[in-house]
Structure formats: structure tokens, C-alpha cells
Amino acid sequence: MLRRFFLIVNQIAEETVEAVEKNDFEWMQMLILLKSEVGKFSDYCRRAINMGYSSGFKRIGPLYVIIEELERVSRDYRTMLRYISSEKIKVSKPIINFMKMLASYEYSFYEVFYNFSLQRIEELGKRRRELEVH
């Protein structure tokens, strides 16, 4: 379920970029409706942790934080989509490029989470610093 949760958040990130790029305000509204899916997955994951479900992770606290942050990221996308679509804003190319970098970073985090290596962590850190500069 956690993997599926990650994939939904990544899908929201990718489709947000596409919808903004195409100025498709209806698509943006459809993405906002994914809120219920995100809520279901985050609630299920937290409930599983609280009920003592064996996740294979040594420390549960960081896992709980990751779930909370995934939910926050999806909420931030929803807020952005709501604003862009309600105001009918045409987003500039530099911002779209930044959004692409951000979506790619989020997918990289997912990959590192499931295929951990120190080299990938270092690369993720470099990419994060690049995002902060933009």
C-alpha cells in the first residue's frame, strides 16, 4: 500500500506538470479530486503502523513521517492546482521547468526509498541543493 501511495503522489506530480504545460484547467480540477485517493492510502498506511503491522522496517517513526510528508506534498500540489485553475493562470516556462525538476526529484526519492544505496542518497542530496538554488 505504501508503494501505491508513493506512485499516486508521483502521478499527481507528473500530471500536474503536464496539465499546467497544456493549460488544461479541467485536467487540473480532476487532479484536485485525487485528494480522496491520497487520504485513503495515507490513512491506511498510518492505521497499519498503529496496529503493529509488520512492515519490514526497523524503525517505524521515520516511516510515519514519510507518510505524513507524502500527504503534505500531495496537498501542496492540490493547493497549487486549485489556485492556477481558479485564476486561469498561464504558468511561465521557467516555472514549468522547475516543476519538472521537482517531479523528477520526487520520483528519485521513491526509487531511493525502495532501492537504497549511499551513492543514490548522495545524488539525491545534490539534486535537492540544485532545487534550492532555483
Quick overview of this protein structure:
By secondary structure, the protein is mainly alpha-helical. Helices cover 82% and strands 0% of the residues. The chain is flat and about 45 Å long.
Protein topology:
Blueprint: H1 2-21, H2 25-32, H3 35-50, H4 60-87, H5 93-114, H6 118-133
Overall pLDDT: 92
Morphology: flat
Radius of gyration of CA atoms, rounded to a whole number: 16 Å
For the biggest sheet, the summary is: none
By DSSP, the count of extended strands is 0
What percentage of the residues does DSSP assign to strands (E)?
A: under 5%
Helix count, per DSSP? 6
Unreliable sequence segments: none
- Which bin fits the share of residues in helices? over 70%
SSE-based structural type? mainly alpha
Through-space gap between termini:
33 Å
**Topology as a string of helices (H) and strands (E):** HHHHHH
Walkthrough of the structure:
- The chain is mainly α.
- The protein contains 6 helices and no strands.
- It has helices spanning 2-21, 25-32, 35-50, 60-87, 93-114, 118-133.
- Helix 1 (2-21) runs antiparallel to helix 3 and helix 3 (35-50) runs antiparallel to helix 4 (60-87).
- The longest helix is centred in the middle third of the chain and has 28 residues, at 60-87.
- The radius of gyration is 16 Å and the shape is flat.
